[in-house]
Amino acid sequence: MSSKVKFLALLVALVDLCHGSIITHIISSKEVVRTHNKLRTRVGTPDLSGDFFLAIKAKDCAFKMLRDDDNILEHPCDPSKDKQGENIYSVKSDGRTSEQALTVYERAFRVWESEEKDINFADPDWAFKMDSTSTSKPVFHYTQLVWRSTTKVGCGLASNGGESIVVCRYSPKGNTATVSSLQYNVPVPPQTAPVTCEDNKDFAATLCKDLSVCASFGSMCKKSCGLC
């Protein structure tokens, strides 16, 4: 074995030792933007742009949590200090290659997106019930995905071969859980809205009068109701 090969082998060994055999990745910005904006287009919120610095933050956070065996539910990297939002996903899966990392990210995104079904948008008071103390199922990953006021996203991953952690960071942060903020930033899916205001006067009273909702559901919030 040549001295150059020996040096490279030693260098790799030292890197593995220092990082505890944890491999990190920045998830492809193109794929992150594509998946997020496909969902946001469906529900009617503006496109996000990819942000390299958010991706670095996300990657470093994923590494820290895997290295320190942190409780991901506690968001130990404290994204609020950077005024950023954060979604986290952990799975017993290998994500050490770039292809594996992308597969794990796509799985994470599907899990976050699936939370939409657990928000009862047909309930006129859905926004009043969307606070962290009364929501029985996790739904705030989904709301961050579609949050209207968020404009940038970056995602990273860390894997030790047996476990992988995906982190996405968002700016400006979402999930400011006030009723007015939720009603503005989390769109009611079109299939949930009534065909006419007469079908559900409570829906009209609470939602049709919101200008952002009128823009999305103008044909459903009839002018005869005097709200759109």
Description:
This protein has 228 residues and is α+β, with helices and mostly antiparallel strands. The protein has a single domain, classed as Pathogenesis-related Protein p14a (3-Layer(aba) Sandwich), CATH 3.40.33. It has helices at residues 3-18, 29-43, 52-68, 98-114, 140-146, 179-185, 201-208, 211-217; strands at residues 23-26, 49-50, 85-91, 152-159, 164-171. Strands 1, 2, 3, 4 and 5 form a 5-stranded mixed beta sheet that branches. A hairpin with a 4-residue loop joins strand 4 (152-159) and strand 5. Helix 2 packs parallel to helix 4 (98-114). It is globular. The N and C termini lie far apart (77 Å). Keywords: Signal. InterPro entries: CAP_dom, CAP_sf, CRISP-related. Residues 1-20 form the signal peptide. This is SCP domain-containing protein.
